[in-house]
Amino acid sequence: MAKKKVAVIGATGVAGQQFLASLAGHPQFEVVALAASERSAGKLYKDAITDAHGAFRWYCQESLSPEFAKIKVEDAAKLDATKVDLIFTAVESDAAKDLEPRYAQTTPVVSTASAFRYEKDVPIFIPGVNQNHDQLIAVQRKNRGWKGFVTPVPNCTTTGLAMSLKPLHDSFGVMQVIMTSMQACSGAGRSPGVIALDITDNVVPYIPKEEEKVEKETQKILGTIVNGEVAPAPFPVSATCTRVPVLEAHTEAVFVSLAKHATVEDAKKVMREFAKDFTALKLPSCPPRLIEVTDDPFRPQPRLDRDREGGMVTSVGRIRVDHALPNGIKYVLVSHNTKMGAAKGGMLVAEYLIHQGHI
Amino acid sequence: MAKKKVAVIGATGVAGQQFLASLAGHPQFEVVALAASERSAGKLYKDAITDAHGAFRWYCQESLSPEFAKIKVEDAAKLDATKVDLIFTAVESDAAKDLEPRYAQTTPVVSTASAFRYEKDVPIFIPGVNQNHDQLIAVQRKNRGWKGFVTPVPNCTTTGLAMSLKPLHDSFGVMQVIMTSMQACSGAGRSPGVIALDITDNVVPYIPKEEEKVEKETQKILGTIVNGEVAPAPFPVSATCTRVPVLEAHTEAVFVSLAKHATVEDAKKVMREFAKDFTALKLPSCPPRLIEVTDDPFRPQPRLDRDREGGMVTSVGRIRVDHALPNGIKYVLVSHNTKMGAAKGGMLVAEYLIHQGHI
Amino acid sequence: MAKKKVAVIGATGVAGQQFLASLAGHPQFEVVALAASERSAGKLYKDAITDAHGAFRWYCQESLSPEFAKIKVEDAAKLDATKVDLIFTAVESDAAKDLEPRYAQTTPVVSTASAFRYEKDVPIFIPGVNQNHDQLIAVQRKNRGWKGFVTPVPNCTTTGLAMSLKPLHDSFGVMQVIMTSMQACSGAGRSPGVIALDITDNVVPYIPKEEEKVEKETQKILGTIVNGEVAPAPFPVSATCTRVPVLEAHTEAVFVSLAKHATVEDAKKVMREFAKDFTALKLPSCPPRLIEVTDDPFRPQPRLDRDREGGMVTSVGRIRVDHALPNGIKYVLVSHNTKMGAAKGGMLVAEYLIHQGHI
Amino acid sequence: MAKKKVAVIGATGVAGQQFLASLAGHPQFEVVALAASERSAGKLYKDAITDAHGAFRWYCQESLSPEFAKIKVEDAAKLDATKVDLIFTAVESDAAKDLEPRYAQTTPVVSTASAFRYEKDVPIFIPGVNQNHDQLIAVQRKNRGWKGFVTPVPNCTTTGLAMSLKPLHDSFGVMQVIMTSMQACSGAGRSPGVIALDITDNVVPYIPKEEEKVEKETQKILGTIVNGEVAPAPFPVSATCTRVPVLEAHTEAVFVSLAKHATVEDAKKVMREFAKDFTALKLPSCPPRLIEVTDDPFRPQPRLDRDREGGMVTSVGRIRVDHALPNGIKYVLVSHNTKMGAAKGGMLVAEYLIHQGHI
Question: Is B323 marked active-site?
Answer without folding.
Answer: no
